[in-house]
Amino acid sequence: MKEHVPVMVNEVLEALRPWEEVGTVVDATLGLGGHSGYILGNCANAYVIGFDQDPFAREVAGTNLSRYSGRFEVIADNFRHIEKLAERPGWTGASAVLFDLGVSNMQITEPERGFSFQGSGPLDMRMDASEETNSRMTAKDILNGSSVKELTEIFRKYGEEEHAYRIALGIVRKREAGELLETTDDLVRLIREVLPAPVQRKMGGHPARKVFQALRIAVNDEINALEEALDGALKVLKPGGKILAMSYHSLEDRMVKTKFREWEEQGVGRSSPRKAITPSEEEIESNNKSRSAKLRIFVSDKETSGKGDKADAIHRMPT
Ligand SMILES: C[S@@+](CC[C@H](N)C(=O)[O-])C[C@H]1O[C@@H](n2cnc3c(N)ncnc32)[C@H](O)[C@@H]1O
Predict the structure, then answer these.
(1) Which residue, by CA, sits nearest to atom 24 of ligand 1?
(2) Angle formed at CA 200 by CA 197 and CA 206, multiple of 5 degrees
(3) Nearest C-alpha to atom 20 of ligand 1 is from which residue?
(4) What are the tens digits of pLDDT across the range 97-121?
(5) Which domains does the chain have, with CATH numbers?
(6) Rounded to two decimals, what is the model's pTM?
(7) Does the Cβ of 4 fall within 6 Å of ligand 1?
(8) Which of 52, 79, 283 to mutate to test the pocket of ligand 1 (most atoms within 8 A of CB)?
């Protein structure tokens, strides 16, 4: 059975109390069904609607959750379309929407997906490479088709890579010399070539890490998708419902924090707790991937969220 060790499971479950009152939960990033499995196992009345744009993840999640058959459904779509749930006949709103952003271990450890600087594979990085989205650019298309300025911006904006310009210039010079980047190895080699050894030593981590992150975010349009999904999530919540957003890098966390603050100013709910929750030391020790995780929780107001709005208004109408 393929697994992904879910991050901050206890913290997620604590935030969902009282468990017997949990109804529909939208798992926007179903992955291999790790969080969903715990939710279904602990919240007797929970029904999970799980989104994933990755066909392999959906298949594995279906198998991993099979013992909860009838209590979950899997949706093959980008979570940016989450808002569509509110159009379902009889939709009464979700108790919670969970985001566990980024990629799963399964995606990273399969070299042919091209996500990892550690394995050797084609420069793809599309989470969804299905027929319908086949027109979407791969990492290779971006690397071999963008100008120095465009590449610099991608590496800076999405990877916060200090040496963005130098790496972008190296890529374009290689291309002009007739050498196109084909594989993850080609890209790692190029980054190692253009960055002097003392610079690489100071980077604290693999010298290609931030460039790979930046490309993945660009290929999958992750920041725009997240912004749309957060707005949609607020609309599908029931009054008093919660959004739980777990991010692994500052760009995503900033987006979540800013959205929650804006909503609070608009009076539609509040962040609770005020600050991000981080994993315990024990969890970081046992699952290194959790070290950068930040979980933020937004609780919508009883009166003002999505559909509940209308339901409340009807109840309050004078008879
Ligand atoms: C970190 S994993 C989630 C792991 C999951 N919580 C678990 O415990 O198994 C993130 C998952 O979200 C999916 N994903 C990322 N961005 C997405 C998007 N915009 N729409 C739909 N799925 C997305 C990825 O394909 C991946 O399977």
Answers:
(1) 103
(2) 135
(3) 78
(4) 999 998 888 888 888 888 888 878 9
(5) 9-106+222-316 (3.40.50.150), 129-219 (1.10.150.170)
(6) 0.90
(7) yes
(8) 52
Whether ligand 1 lies within 6 angstroms of the CB of 51 is answered as: yes
Read off the tokens for 8.
């901050």
Distance 113 CA to ligand 1 centre (A): 15
CA atoms 122, 128, 131, 133: torsion sign:
negative
Q: Which residues contact 32 (CB under 8 A, 6 or more apart)?
A: 2, 3, 4, 57, 60, 61, 64, 104, 106
pLDDT at 202: 85
pLDDT value for 243: 98
Tokens standing for residue 123: 């420069």
List the chain residues with pLDDT less than 70: 1-4, 131-135, 303-319
